[in-house]
Amino acid sequence: SEADAGEKQPLYWVAPMDPNYRRDEPGKSPMGMDLVPVYEDEQGAGDSPGTVKISPTVVNNLGVRTDFARIAPLENTIQTVGYVGYNEDKIVHMHPRVEGWVDALYVSTAGESVTKGQKVYGIYSPQLVSAQEEYLLAKKRNNPALIKAARLRLQSLHMPKEALLQLDSRNEVMQSVTFYAPQSGVLEHLKIRHGFYVEPGTTLMSIASLEEVWVEAEVFEHQVDLIEEGLGVTMSVGYLPGRQWQGKLDYSYPSLDETTRALRVRLRFENSERLLKPNMFANVTIEAKPSLPVVLVPRNAVIRTGVQDRVVLALGDGYFKSIEVKLGRMNREFIEI
User: Fold this and answer.
1) Global pTM?
2) Do 326 and 337 contact (CB within 8 A), yes or no?
């Protein structure tokens, strides 16, 4: 038709990402993309090396979208996952300072809640019996120096205050001495049963506090320079999807994992309601420090080939040019150029 005759014919077809790849007919580029037609045009924009003109129909059919590059700080948020754990600063391990036999046990299983001052176990120890006898003998002789030395020995053997008060008031040796929980929390470990023989170095039980929890998480190697101690952290857990916890990044470990090439970080969260429990899976957002103002482009505008990174500049009037770029940091929306 006359309309068809009046239309300009393409001079050649070119690969969108490589202006040196030209063909005399439509086809595919080495990257598998459709070749785009280049038309003869008297405007100067088309004279720039590597610039191609694409007809509005082709632009529309390809769904080409454009956006502005900008100069702004890159707001960095790190999305990662982790596991809730005990605050290891607040774990108390109970060890005896004497040899003896456990003749009373007032807790039964690991994970059980205990309160500060609660009875946890009783022990019969010949050492404690002997130390009590020495103390009562010193009291009977009314020798202040001996009384002080015998009392210090009982304290060095971890004789509980309650037992010392009872010894002072009754003046009778206790064959079995009861020990009490030094803090409230849960039994992380319980390694004794009634009748066990124990000695110094034996870990009887461990009591962990749940007032504050640690979360161990990992960040990728390229994100390491974005983090520092004290950064704000937001966390959510699966069983309470509508609830978020605010905490802080407490510590970055000194080395990367040799297999995953990730850096472990430790996060702290207040847990006075005790809703967070050890080994819960957590989704974590770390509010990393922002960069200085840099050139940013939308993340989906960057074409990454594995050999080089490129963006396509929209020069206006249907002209486009593919250029190689060097990438910097990135977040979920933008990449630094």
Assistant:
1) 0.65
2) yes
